[in-house]
Amino acid sequence: MGSGICSLIILISHKNHKEDKDKIIKDDFLSIASHQLRTPLTSIKGYLSMLLEGDAGEVNDLQKRFLMEAFNSSERMVRIIGDFLGVSRVQSGKFELQKEEGDLAKIIDEELIVLQEIAKTRNIKIKFNKKHKKIIFSADFSKLRQVIMNMIDNAIFYSEKDSEITIEVGEDKKYAYFKVTDSGIGVPATQQGKLFTKFYRGSNAQKKRPDGTGVGLYLSKKIIDEHNGEIIFYSQEGKGSTFGFKIKK
């Protein structure tokens, strides 16, 4: 083998090693930064909740509105950090499901307590169509909760004010399912194939919500794939979207 070829192989090897090392450093930084940010944000969220509940004295309507905006923003930051932690675990090969028996309908009820308040700030009505009172099966409900929060949050922020969002949850003999439908901006047909890839955002979504991260749907698909489930998605630009999932019980 010639010295030129040997040199080229060594250079490629060094380059690949450097790229692997840089990736590890980035993944470690993402994980550490996310963990460090979560603790103070959780504390901020807790104190804001106490203020809203009147633990430090009565608050008037204007003060309550400002506090609610701050609470909703902190809630969203906690979710974003959770998404980045999830992506970090995927990249480092530490993404694992922790399955236990739970009730899908119940966790949606719980998440809607916060999401209804966020929707109210945009004059958006949420209609919850619960086909069954209880939908019990084995899954990683902590991760499914992330998926549900992401999809409903997107429906709220990509919808116009004074509109309605419909959430549906149900089951049949084989599957449990969840879906949320809005009449918002939708996804351009030419961009739908890339929507669940990491850091990708539709062109109209970038204009509507410049602060989006592009990791929520990527992580959602990963979570549903790990459950051997299927993503539910259909959309028409300018008319709205339906997002959701179905999982074998």
UniProtKB/TrEMBL annotation:
InterPro entries: HATPase_C_sf (IPR036890), HATPase_dom (IPR003594), His_kinase_dom (IPR005467), HisK_dim/P_dom (IPR003661), HisK_dim/P_sf (IPR036097), Sensor_HK_Regulatory (IPR050736), Sig_transdc_His_kin-like_C (IPR004358). Keywords: Kinase, Phosphoprotein, Transferase, Two-component regulatory system. Coiled coil: none annotated. It is an enzyme of class 2 (transferase). Pfam families: HATPase_c (PF02518), HisKA (PF00512). PANTHER family: HISTIDINE KINASE 1 (PTHR43711:SF1), TWO-COMPONENT HISTIDINE KINASE (PTHR43711). This is histidine kinase. It comes from Candidatus Nanogingivalis gingivitcus. The lineage of its organism: Bacteria, Candidatus Saccharimonadota, Candidatus Nanosyncoccalia, Candidatus Nanogingivales, Candidatus Nanogingivalaceae.
